[in-house]
TrEMBL record:
It comes from the Bacteria. GO terms for molecular function: DNA binding. Residues 31-85 form the HTH cro/C1-type domain. InterPro entries: Cro/C1-type_HTH, Lambda_DNA-bd_dom_sf. It comes from Bremerella alba. Pfam families: HTH_3. This is HTH cro/C1-type domain-containing protein. Coiled coil: none annotated.
Length: 177
């Protein structure tokens, strides 16, 4: 039976180091990144949290598994919602941009339904939805429906494959594999 090593700091917080082998550790939070963005120094965070700077550094490590109460303390100090601490950095878009993108996708769907429906009742519902979405965000009025099959190209446009150059060596190497 394998055990997970852990250390106890001040008999309050337990840290379980991730044992991922050769893989990079999974990022659980963005505390360090947000602390720096908010202009809060390590010393200030240490003082406000009531713990030594070494413990603050340990909690700031992105792969440190923290308790909800610890995240709540960090959220209070950094003056951000807890959700912002947990947000994965893979998604580089800010919350308003993500929400706008969602509304754009919904509007594209509503416009597609409106264009393709044969039934009057569904057309009316699509118009009502369109009006409601435009009330939420006026710039959605200019959004077009989804394409039927895919992005249409003119005869002058080249596909991506025509723009990429492939060396003969890479083709021969792929054939050998």
């Amino acid at each position: 039976m394998a055990t997970v090593p852990f250390t106890m700091d001040h008999a309050v917080y337990a840290y379980a180091p991730s044992e991922t082998g050769n893989r990079s550790p999974r990022k659980l939070h963005r505390i360090r990144e947000l602390r720096k963005q908010q202009g809060v120094s390590l010393r200030t965070a240490s003082r406000k949290l009531g713990m030594p700077a070494s413990q603050v550094r340990e909690e700031e490590k992105p792969d440190t598994d923290l308790l909800v109460s610890q995240l709540s303390q960090w959220a209070d100090i950094l003056d951000v919602p807890i959700a912002d601490l947990l947000e994965e950095p893979q998604n580089n878009l800010s919350s308003p941009i993500r929400e706008r993108a969602k509304l754009v996708r919904i509007m594209k769907t509503v416009k597609a339904i409106s264009e393709r429906t044969q039934e009057a009742n569904i057309g009316i519902l699509a118009e009502v939805l369109t009006d409601q979405l435009v009330d939420l965000m006026p710039e959605l009025a200019d959004i077009n429906a989804w394409n039927n099959v895919g992005q249409r190209r003119s005869l002058n446009d080249l596909g991506q494959i025509a723009e990429r150059r492939i060396s003969c060596d890479s083709i021969v190497g792929a054939m050998r594999d």
